[in-house]
Amino acid sequence: MAVIGLGRFGTALALELVKSGREVLGIDSDEKLVQANAEELTQVVQANSTDEDALRELGIPDFDSAVVAIGSDLEASILTASLLLQLGVPQVWAKATSVSHGRILQQLGVHHVIFPEMDMGKRVAHMVSGESLDYIQLDEDFVMAKTEVPESFEGKTLSEMQFRSLHGVTVVATKKPNDNYKPSFPETVLNTGDVMIVAGRTKKVEEFCRMGW
User: Fold this and answer.
1) Which of 59, 68, 111, 153 has a 20 to 30 Å separation from 41 between CA atoms?
2) Domain that holds residue 144
């Protein structure tokens, strides 16, 4: 996989990919960033990602996926994404810094447009407001949230609570204090202090977490 743009986001992404066992080619035009990652990534090169010849020399057309992690230079981000698509990279991911930036990337045909700052902002907002312990958006209208089991659920099973039919959410896992998460089943018993992970359409999950019980 190629990661183009080794700022904070690109570097964090590339390092995590390496930890997971992926071979990663890091590309950036900044020599300092290239040197900083030289010993961490599989290969790091200094190159202009808006130069088609440079990308060809690096063998980018042979990569199965590439991430455009350029954030501050919108022109470079858009041109790089466009070149990756022209070179036939099967899966192109690109970081967007605004809705308009993301819209342009989508119009180009980028396969996956990500909004790290916006997504993190939403996540933290839900945590700060006390609506949930954690909040992750998996798709445009599908989220997962981590929330505590209230006293009113004490001793009841998931089948008794009928979360899906009454509230439109599914409890996918539960966790006892000082234990690991376990898949949930209809007979799973809920106790005060447990943590449950609920999933469903955005509106339904947010309404469920706001109920307070």
Assistant:
1) 111
2) 119-210
Query: So what's the pLDDT on residue 127?
Result: 67
Give the separation between CA 109 and CA 89, rounded to whole angstroms. 12
Phi and psi angles of residue 14, each rounded to the nearest 5 degrees, phi first? -60, -45
Cα distance between the two ends of the chain: 46
Domain end call among 114, 132, 165? 114
pLDDT digits 0-9 by tens, 32-76? 999 999 999 999 999 999 999 999 999 999 999 999 999 789 999
- pLDDT of amino acid 213: 58
- Domain match, 73 and 150 both: no
Using CA atoms, how far residue 51 sits from 17, 29, 60, 95, 118, in Å, is: 25, 11, 12, 19, 29
pLDDT, tens only, 94-119 = 999 888 999 999 999 999 998 877 77
d(CA 105, CA 93): 10
